[in-house]
Amino acid sequence: MRTADAYPGPIDLLFTDVVLPDDNGRRLADRIRAARPAIRVLFTSGYSSNVIAQHGVLERGIQFLEKPYGGSALSQKVREILDAKAPSGG
After folding, report:
1. Can you give the pTM of this predicted structure?
2. I need a surface site. Which of 1, 6, 11, 12 has the fewest CB within 10 A?
3. How many domains does the chain have?
């Protein structure tokens, strides 16, 4: 959050784990989107879908990449997200 707040330019993509040490990626994304509504978000996790569902990430329209993944899968997913239509508000 501090990095996003301190960065003066546009941020095209937030790539975050779903489960964070003191929070979760969904809340982090929501807070960053409040200031930057056009940001796109890609969530990742190695936890089971039951755990991920508790964090509200398996909802329709949410971009998710399951661990483990390789560089090719990551770059393909990032390209897909960045090439997609911008979210409303941005």
Report:
1. 0.84
2. 6
3. 1
